[in-house]
Write a structure and sequence with these properties.
Oligomer: single chain
Distance between the termini: 26 Å
Order of helices and strands: EHEEHEHHEHEEHEEEHEEHEHHH
CATH architecture: 3-Layer(aba) Sandwich
CATH superfamily: NAD(P)-binding Rossmann-like Domain
Number of helices: 11
Structural class: alpha/beta
Helix content: 40-55%
Number of strands: 13
Strand order of the largest sheet: 3-2-1-4-5-6-11
Radius of gyration: 18 Å
Largest sheet: 7 strands, parallel
Number of domains: 1
CATH class: Alpha Beta
Length: 305
């Protein structure tokens, strides 16, 4: 049993990771405004932007490993308020890495495929990162600060879907919501990614904790799809009308922040490091569909006190 500290534990990844980890590990789950509850876990509300918060948390929890999931992930909000994005996405993880280095704790920092410009696709870890919006730029600065302060840290770039504990929607949930209401929605045909289910990433993170893998690692799905294709796959799995999803271009959308086009990640290094294959999209979507009725979604939502 390891002592784990999970930041952003009320978010998409954090909540799924909390559920996956709490039975076999001693978990301290940190959220900001949302009060969490889970028997067997220590749930804490804390503002990570306050400089003393991080060392205080590590002193109290004495974690073997910290998984930093907390971030401002709304790309439009980041573009509108770059100072807030810098504070949450770059300064907080920099301080956390310094605190982990002093405490001797392992750090797994969650980053994003949005550090790339989207011109090439099939990105490997050593490809040049050239973000084209504020969100990607702040996440790249976080990667650099984390590895400068703690070279033994693992920085995971990914792209996620899944069930949220909070009443907000991942991309797949947004498609499902519109399809069930028989409302037309747009899926971008020119935005390509390698999405991974949040609970799959949680499992891989728990494997990585016991490993000595360090540096940048791409942990994503093995299948590259456009957002339009992803929406159609959601419709297929749930038996809904895919004709409601209209093809469109992200360049025509009324968005403040520029969006990269090809963000598919090459996951060869991660698979080689852990000796396992990352999942394909089809089986993951089918499991995601089952989770609505097998108790998983109810467990996630029960985390919010």
């Amino acid at each position: 049993m390891a002592r784990l500290l999970i930041t952003g534990a009320s978010g998409l990844l954090g909540a799924n990771l909390l559920l996956a980890a709490h039975a076999e590990h001693a978990v301290t789950a940190v959220s900001h405004r949302i009060h969490l509850r889970l028997a067997g876990a220590t749930c804490v509300q804390a503002d990570l932007t306050q400089p003393q918060t991080t060392p205080d948390l590590l002193r109290a929890a004495r974690p073997d490993a910290v998984i930093h999931c907390a971030a401002l992930t709304d790309v439009e909000v980041c573009e509108a308020d770059p100072e807030l994005a810098e504070r949450l996405n770059a300064e907080v993880p920099a301080r956390l890495a310094e605190a982990c280095a002093q405490a001797g704790a392992r750090l797994i920092h969650i980053s994003t495929d949005a550090v790339f410009d989207g011109e090439k696709g099939d990105y490997a870890e050593d490809d040049a990162a050239r973000p084209i919006n504020v969100y990607g730029a702040t996440k790249l600065r976080a990667e650099q600060a984390v590895l400068a302060a703690l070279p033994s840290a693992t920085v995971i770039r990914t792209n996620l879907f899944g069930w949220n504990a909070q009443p907000k929607q991942s991309l797949t949930e947004w498609f499902l919501h519109n399809l069930r209401r028989a409302e037309a929605c747009t899926g971008f045909t020119d935005v390509q990614a390698t999405p991974l289910a949040a609970d799959d990433l949680a499992d891989w993170i728990l494997r990585l904790i016991a490993s000595n893998v360090s540096g940048v690692l791409h942990v994503a799905g093995r299948e590259s799809v456009s957002k339009f294709d992803l929406g159609c796959r959601v419709a297929e799995v749930f038996g809904l009308d895919a004709r409601l999803i209209r093809p469109g271009s992200v360049d025509d959308a009324p968005l403040r922040a520029r969006r990269p086009h090809r963000l598919d990640l090459n996951v060869g290094r991660a698979e080689q490091a852990l000796g396992a294959e990352l999942p394909r999209l089809g089986p993951s979507l089918e499991r995601w569909q089952r989770q609505e009725h097998d108790g998983t979604l109810d467990q996630l939502r029960s985390l919010i006190a």
